[in-house]
Amino acid sequence: MRPWFAKLSRWPALPVLLLILAQLFWAGNGVLGQGVRGVIPPISLAFWRWVLAFFFSLPFTWPHLRRDWPVVRANWPIILILSLTGITLFNTIQYAALQTTSAINSSLLQTLMPSVIILLSWILFREKISGRQGVGVLICIAGAVLVVTRADWAIVRGLRFVWGDILILIGVLVYALYSVLLSRRPAMSGGGFLAWSFLLGFLMLSPAYLWELSTAGGFALTWPVAASLLYVGIFPSILSFLCWNYGVVVLGSNRSGLFVNLLPVFTAALSILLLGEIVRWFHLAGLVLIFGGMLLFNRARRMAWQPAA
């Protein structure tokens, strides 16, 4: 480790800063996904995001990629499922959803992720949930319902939901499944898992990408488009991963999970600044409910903080 980095790593505020940066980069991904709709088709954006992320990370992950090949070959079903849910499907669904919903709605609904993870853990592996935890989950769901329905009873009565919001909820379910199944990941290096996930993710996305090219066409590689692709290939893909993992290792998963609630805050700020979106009262009310539900859930767990392994 270089001396300057060793000195920086002893800075107490560093993990907090990196966790905040991870949310900022992910918020930028959602805002950009909405900003380039009509310019870059959603599947193309997802495909090139992971192609670029793979090749940009390759100089650092190549030794791990080769070394972990026997592990991947012996455990290919779970590796494929993790790559499919975490890379191929989730971000493609997110970009498709942003064709019809706002970046603010998308980020708010994604804060449901911890609650859905808890529910899937109970359904698949029978992890226990207390009564207070269940109430916290229900409060989070109520916040999501408020955002999706826009507090308009006519939408509920007429079932005229925005399709993008429904897609985001499907994406949340897909990524929650990915998160739950991560506990079944075979023993391999972090760099190897990252590189193999990127590689398999964009390979499995290739048929859908070719279909989109044949039906919707491609996109013009202008300087703004190139800059957008570079952003999604580097910041929310590689740098967010590194920032998030470092923060989780130092602070632990329990404390780090609360930083997810910064995602809608950053998304709202960037959306107002760059896209001219307007924050409505039901966005704020939904955020309060989701955040309050998560605080209640985490308080109910009463888990002592320990650094992640």
Q: Would you kindly provide a written description of the structure presented here, covering whatever features stand out?
A:
The protein has 309 residues and is mainly alpha-helical. Helix 2 packs antiparallel against helix 12 and helix 3 packs antiparallel against helix 5. It is globular. The N terminus and C terminus are likely disordered.
Question: What's this entry about, in short?
Answer:
The two termini are 20 Å apart.
Structural class: mainly alpha
Oligomer: single chain
| Overall pLDDT | 77
**Topology order in helix (H) and strand (E) letters:** HHHHHHHHHHHHHHH
Q: How many helical stretches?
A: 15
- Portion in beta strands: under 5%
- Largest sheet features: none
The count of DSSP E runs of length 2 or more, i.e. the number of strands, is 0
Distance between the termini: 20 Å
Shape: globular
Uncertain runs are 1-6, 302-309
Radius of gyration of CA atoms, rounded to a whole number: 19 Å
Helix content: over 70%
